[in-house]
């Protein structure tokens, strides 16, 4: 392994980091809002709304992200006249927006399941107690349900954030030059795949190291009693 | 498994026109990589089999060189690294000889040569780009003047090019400052995006562009602007071989030479490209 080449490659690959982070964080942010809405829809007493949310999650969790990216980008690209008519073509013309849409829908589906798990973990006794205090509707959600659900969901959601950062590596297939796209380009110029992928891997590792730290910090803040090292305690 | 392998072997022999089954025993086995997404050079047909100019030519060259050949499909962006990693022994994938590639692998003499340029939609304003023929090796100054004349017309346009190609190197050198260049894994993908209107033009080999124009995707497309060849666009398409594999290079070189001399390449070229792509020496 040639350290100078490795360093040069690393520096060149850093040029792709802004796009990687931009795609990851935009899709996570929009996807989280969508995930919460989907999770709430799933809990609706009016079943048809729940079915819509369930089917969305079923489809987007059950198909590979790469296939979703191709379908949205190349697939919808063949329906340009219809999209033009609906005034949506400016959106689908851009590879960036197509990638963002695919990543967002994907993380919304996974996130919905995580949020649903969090909501379901709220003990019914706590809700009953809150009702006994006269809380209802938004107040109940804000004071009791949301904080408990958030604590329960955060470790799993942290996992999802890390998966999304790595998932951005697929968008190079639709011409976006993020870290992995640049890595392929450098390999095709230099034919040295080992060093280049090594550097690319290191970049993802650094980003995700920072992310795990942030998530761990957030877990500490909102649930200091649920220390990662602590053993489960029986609650009566 | 055994049966499948036997069947594959039988298929390869049939393709090569061999009747005797034991003839291959003493012949060297050679794996040739091709992309399988670059019609009419090489592509996957509706039956899922590799087909094209290079498949026909490859079989012919192997027959002449007395090699037991098998074609395998390999993504374009990994085609040279995998040759070096000995996943196969030769590349026949519309790959042009360039000085840069020759630093890493060796090439036989060219078996085909053609022009490169732009493909656009017939309705595009770029359809009126001026024509002409320019050779970057023979007359670089005239070629660069033609390129300079194109620049103002390509200002702000989006060009699609397959990654890791001579076309990309050329487009980046001359048009990066005026146009946005997007890289695609395959030419099929940039053709789809040209059809959809995401691109203003593609940059590529005229042979591949013409093949696209014959398909439903390409029915509204046309070749526009000058035809460029030579120089950094490549010195002709040849078989790529690992540098240390001198025996194989010698064998393929002799086969290419004889296929050019006796007109086999012209015949195959007429069949697949409808024009003669035999390299002119």
Molecular structure report:
The complex is a heterodimer of chains A (236) and B (281). With 236 residues, chain A is mainly alpha-helical. Chain A has a domain of 157 residues: MetI-like fold (Orthogonal Bundle), CATH 1.10.3720. The relative contact order of chain A is 0.14. With 281 residues, chain B is α/β, with parallel strands linked by helices. Chain B folds into 2 domains: 149 residues, D-Maltodextrin-Binding Protein, domain 2; 118 residues, Periplasmic binding protein-like II (D-Maltodextrin-Binding Protein, domain 2, 3-Layer(aba) Sandwich), CATH 3.40.190.10. Chain B is 38% helix and 21% strand. Chain B has 10 helices and 14 strands. In chain B, strand 2 and strand 3 form a beta hairpin. In chain B, helix 2 crosses helix 9. The longest helix of chain B has 16 residues. About 2% of the residues of chain B have low confidence. Classes of the chains: A mainly alpha (236), B alpha/beta (281). Chains A and B meet through helix 10 of A and helix 3, strand 11 and helix 7 of B.
């Amino acid at each position: 392994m040639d350290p100078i080449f490795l360093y040069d490659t690393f520096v060149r690959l850093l040029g792709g980091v802004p796009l990687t982070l931009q795609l990851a964080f935009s899709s996570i942010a929009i996807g989280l809002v969508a995930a919460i809405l989907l999770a709430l829809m799933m809990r609706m007493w009016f079943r048809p709304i729940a079915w819509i949310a369930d089917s969305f999650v079923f489809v987007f969790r059950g198909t590979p992200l790469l296939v979703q990216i191709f379908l949205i980008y190349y697939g919808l690209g063949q329906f340009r006249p219809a999209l033009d008519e609906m005034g949506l073509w400016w959106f689908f013309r851009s590879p960036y927006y197509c990638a963002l849409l695919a990543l967002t829908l994907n993380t919304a589906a996974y996130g919905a399941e995580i949020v649903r798990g969090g909501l379901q973990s709220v003990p019914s006794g706590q809700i009953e107690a809150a009702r006994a205090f006269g809380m209802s509707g938004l107040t109940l959600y804000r004071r009791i349900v949301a904080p408990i659900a958030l604590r329960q969901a955060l470790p799993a959601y942290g996992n999802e954030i890390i998966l999304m950062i790595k998932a951005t590596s697929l968008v190079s297939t639709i011409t976006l030059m993020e870290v992995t796209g640049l890595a392929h380009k450098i390999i095709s110029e230099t034919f040295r795949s080992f060093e280049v992928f090594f550097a690319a891997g290191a970049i993802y590792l650094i980003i995700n190291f920072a992310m795990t730290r942030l998530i761990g910090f957030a877990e500490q803040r909102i649930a200091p009693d649920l220390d990662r090292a602590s053993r489960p305690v029986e609650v009566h | 498994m055994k049966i499948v392998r036997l069947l594959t072997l039988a298929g390869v022999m049939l393709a090569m026109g061999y009747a005797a089954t034991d003839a291959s025993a003493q012949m060297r086995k050679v794996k040739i990589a091709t992309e399988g997404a670059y019609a009419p050079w090489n592509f996957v047909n509706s039956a899922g089999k590799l087909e094209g100019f290079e498949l026909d030519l490859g079989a012919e060259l192997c027959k002449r060189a007395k090699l037991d050949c098998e074609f395998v499909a390999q993504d374009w962006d990994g085609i040279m690294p995998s040759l070096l990693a000995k996943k196969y022994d030769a590349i026949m994938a519309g790959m042009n000889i360039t000085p840069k590639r020759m630093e890493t692998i060796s090439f036989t003499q060219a078996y085909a040569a053609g022009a490169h340029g732009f493909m656009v939609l017939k309705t595009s304003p770029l359809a009126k780009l001026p024509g002409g023929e320019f050779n970057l090796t023979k007359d670089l100054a005239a070629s660069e003047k033609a390129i300079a004349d194109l620049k103002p017309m390509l200002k702000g346009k989006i060009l699609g090019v397959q990654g890791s190609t001579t076309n990309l190197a050329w487009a980046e050198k001359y048009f990066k400052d005026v146009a946005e260049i997007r890289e695609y894994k395959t030419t099929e993908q940039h053709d789809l995006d040209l059809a959809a209107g995401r691109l203003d033009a593609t940059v590529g080999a005229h042979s591949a562009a013409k093949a696209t124009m014959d398909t439903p995707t390409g029915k509204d497309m046309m070749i526009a602007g000058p035809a460029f060849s030579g120089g950094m666009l490549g010195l002709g398409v040849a078989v790529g071989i690992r540098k240390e594999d001198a025996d194989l290079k010698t064998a393929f070189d002799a086969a290419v030479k004889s296929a050019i001399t006796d007109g086999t390449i012209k015949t195959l070229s007429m069949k697949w490209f409808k024009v003669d792509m035999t390299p002119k020496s």
